[in-house]
Structure formats: structure tokens, C-alpha cells
Amino acid sequence: MINAILTIEIGIDPTLVDIAGLEITWHGVFTALGVIAGVTVAAWLARRMGYSEDMIYNAALALVIGGIIGARTLYVIENWGDFENDIGQIFSLNAGGISIYGALIGGAIGGLTYGYFAKVPNVTRALDIGAIGATMGMAIGRFGDIINGEHFAESTGLPWGIIYTNANSPAFGHPLAPQHPAVGYELIGDLLIFLALVVIYTRVPRAGVTFFAWLFLYGFLRFWVSFLRLDDEILLGLTTAQVIALAAMPIGIGGVIYLLRTPPAEERAERDWERRTSREEKAKPDDAPAEEPQTE
């Protein structure tokens, strides 16, 4: 049977270390590595744009704190039934359970809040940089999701699949047959989006285009991958991530179109000055005496 031949079995215990009740999971390790990688990429790009070191790392701290709060908050809202009888579990971040979209929304709010109060110049370009760093961070973080098996997926009918054989894995026995490596698809998609954003950032000089392109591309990826995941449905058969994606995609494509069709303020001011100068020149009578240079 071809499915059995190409099925990847993951028997790794989701808990890497358990010291006196403090668990360190593969999910937590790769989430931390993703944050470090994302901040490193964003900081490198920010330095090239001329942002100061203090501003870069203060903004990164605001992004990370906002991302953690947003990621956990949206996850708890989506899975309230798992927490209503044990409120203390809400703060057990080391055990896993975060929402990527919550992290993106919370991180954006945190970064924009810092940018507003710190009067960060060219905030739109900073959003471009943040989108590139966030995409790299998400890709690396997905390795932890794959190892832990935290996101269940549909049984696969394709020549490949994944099955979790460790009894401590949340995906153990869900389903018994090999399932789609949906999180793996998203990891690959994140890497492709990262490359696309780098190309857009370096080839399209208009600030904001990269950020809005990211809104559309990640929304598109998450919308379709979510059909393979066994997440809870909240509206018309769609999951929370899909509903957010449907809102993000038109904003993203609309933002890209608007920015590409609307010249920046500096260019508009220059064009207005050229038109005004041209009209003034045409309004001058042909026999008007030339102005003599003033002498002291």
C-alpha cells in the first residue's frame, strides 16, 4: 500500500524536559527559536533602513509581548471549554496552545503602540520589515507543532501522510489512519511567502506594499490549509482562522492596489509644484520684459 510506504511516523515525546513539574516542550523550544530568528531578520533589515539599535529592540520587545498576549488570548477564546473549569491553565504557556493569528494581531498592536508613543519614523516601512520577520518566525515555530502533533488533520488519501505513535502526543489516535501533514504544508507555505516578501521588499520601493502583500498571501495560505485541519468551526462551516483570513485577504489586496496606484506624498507634492510652475509660465505674456537680476 503506497500510503504505508510514504507515511512518516513521529514517536517523539512532546515534552523535551520535565524538571520539578516544569515542562519544556518541543513546541516551546521552536516557538522561542522562531521569535529569535524573526527578530534577527527584522533587526538586520531595520539597521539597513537606519533605525537605531534602541528603537529596534524596544520595538521587538513590544512585538513579542503583544504577540504572546494575543496568541494565548485568541487560543483561550477559541478553546474556552478546555479552560472554564481550570482558569489557572490559561497561564500554562509552556504546555503549548497558542493561536498564530492571535500572535500576529497582538504583535501588530504592540508594535504600532510602541511606534506611536516613540514616534518611530516611517512606520509603514517598519510594518514591511515586521511582516518579513514574522513570516520567518512562524515557519520555524511550525517545526515544534509538527513534532508535538498539536493540530489534528484529515485522513490523507494522497501518497504521503503522517501518524503520531507517542501516547503523549495530542494527535495520538487522531485519526488512526495517516493524516495530512497540514502544519507541514503551512511551514512550506510560510517559507515561500518569506521568499516572495523579500523579493517584493527589494524590488518594490513603495512602503507598505510588502505588509499588505503579506496580509493577502498568509490569509490565502491559511484559508485553504485550514480545510485540512480538524479545528472547531465557528461560522458557516469555517474556522476562526478562515474567518480572519477572509477579512485579511481583501484588505491586503486592496492595500497593494491602492499603494501601487497612488503616488506617495512627496511625489504628489513634486508633481503639483511642476504643474503650478508650468501654468505660471504659460500665463506670462509673450512680450513681458525679462526680469533683471538684482544687484547690491
Q: Determine the number of helices (DSSP H or I, runs of at least 4 residues).
A: 9
Largest sheet: 2 strands, parallel
Sketch the topology as an H/E string, one letter per element. Answer: HEEEHHHHEHHEEHH
Distance between the termini: 98 Å
- Note the overall shape: globular
Give the helix/strand class: mainly alpha
Tally of distinct domains: 1
Low-pLDDT sequence parts: none
Beta fraction: 5-15%
Average the pLDDT over all residues and give the rounded result: 82
Extended strand count = 6
Strand order of the largest sheet: 1-4
- Radius of gyration (Å): 25 Å
Share of helix, binned: 55-70%
Structure explained in plain terms:
This protein is mainly α and 296 residues long. It has one domain. The protein contains nine helices and six strands. The strands form three sheets. Strands 1-4 form a two-stranded parallel sheet. Strands 2-3 form a two-stranded antiparallel sheet. The protein is globular. The model has no long low-confidence stretch (mean pLDDT 82).
